[in-house]
Write a structure and sequence with these properties.
By secondary structure, the protein is mostly helical. Helix content is about 60%, strand content about 0%. The mean pLDDT is about 80.
Length: about 80
């Protein structure tokens, strides 16, 4: 990735993006990317929170596949 550290390469990439999408569509494109990243970050945070609540002691996971092997104690 050392090629992206040269200012000339970055300028060429920006120029190509402007040519492909046009200057009028760039703000909409950037807004869409920003919204997508915001949604992605919130979903990752939710997944981490779910994992944290599953790993806390004292909570039970009803969907644990290991519970299927245990015999029922109800009479």
């Amino acid at each position: 990735m050392s090629i992206l550290r040269h200012p000339g390469t970055i300028l060429v990439l920006v120029f190509i993006v402007v040519l492909l999408f046009g200057a009028n569509r760039l703000p909409d494109l950037a807004r869409s990317v920003g919204q997508s990243l915001k949604i992605f970050k919130s979903e990752v945070k939710d997944l981490r929170d779910d994992d944290a609540t599953r790993n806390t002691p004292g909570t039970t996971d009803a969907g644990n596949p290991g519970d299927q092997d245990k015999p029922s104690t109800q009479a």
